[in-house]
Design goal:
The structure holds two protein chains of two kinds. Chain A is mostly beta strands. Chain A has no helices and eleven strands. The mean pLDDT of chain A is 93. The chains are: A mainly beta, B mainly beta.
């Protein structure tokens, strides 16, 4: 089955810096790669996703890139703000259900 | 629009007790899921359902049961609580339209402690 690895487990940045979170997946049949943000005491919320027919997708300060050959995808957050502090999960899915990474705790310091 | 609602938010159980975590959604989603979240382990799928009357096991189903009698409700039952079931449980739902099937809406979670 699918296996998703996520790095780093924690990431501390200064406000205004960029943050990058990386994930790798094992199943070459996976074709959908979402990113979820989980704020303290809340459930995860979808922030951006990408499908295998594109290599990059942007939405304001966040972007996701996908390298299908290498089987890895990344989340990029530019101009980080304190409200970006949260746990971020990547996931991968093909024919089967979503498999999540282990999460990255992002801390943005003012 | 409430989305996905889970109850209770917190619960403490003694070993061997039983309980049901409730989940209801008002988005008319056919697909519903139960995940558990343990520190450093991400989200693991317990059970899922693709419609009323249909349920199937996920990655970690042992010790749990589910039912899906209506489109809206998907309760998760723990029959004999064990310390290993201490976790945060999330219910989620998604549309069955092909491009939306993997876009999950999560509830706020239920924190369960078994002592």
């Amino acid at each position: 089955g699918e296996n998703v690895e996520q790095h780093p487990s924690t990431l501390s940045v200064q406000e205004g810096d960029s943050a990058v979170i990386k994930c790798t997946y094992s199943d070459s049949a996976s074709n959908y790669f979402p990113w979820y943000k989980q704020e303290l005491g809340k459930g995860p919320q979808l922030i951006i996703d990408i499908r295998s027919n594109v290599g990059e997708k942007k939405d304001q300060r966040i972007a996701v890139t996908l390298n299908k050959t290498a089987k890895h995808f990344s989340l990029h957050i530019t101009e980080t703000q304190p409200e970006d502090s949260a746990v971020y999960f990547c996931a991968a899915s093909g024919f089967q259900k979503l498999v999540f990474g282990t999460g990255t705790r992002l801390l943005v310091s003012p | 629009n409430a989305g996905v609602t889970q109850t209770p938010k917190f619960r403490i159980l003694k070993i061997g007790q039983s309980m049901t975590l409730q989940c209801t959604q008002d988005m008319n989603h056919n697909y519903m899921y139960w995940y558990r979240q343990d520190p450093g382990m991400g989200l693991k799928l317990i059970y899922y359902s693709v419609g009323a009357g249909i349920t199937d096991k996920g990655e970690v189903p042992n010790g749990y049961n589910v039912s899906r009698s209506t489109t809206e409700d998907f309760p998760l039952r723990l029959e004999l609580a064990a310390p290993s079931q201490t976790s945060v449980y999330f219910c989620a739902s998604s549309s069955d339209r092909e491009i939306q099937a993997n876009v999950l809406t999560f509830g706020a979670g239920s924190r369960l402690t078994v002592l």
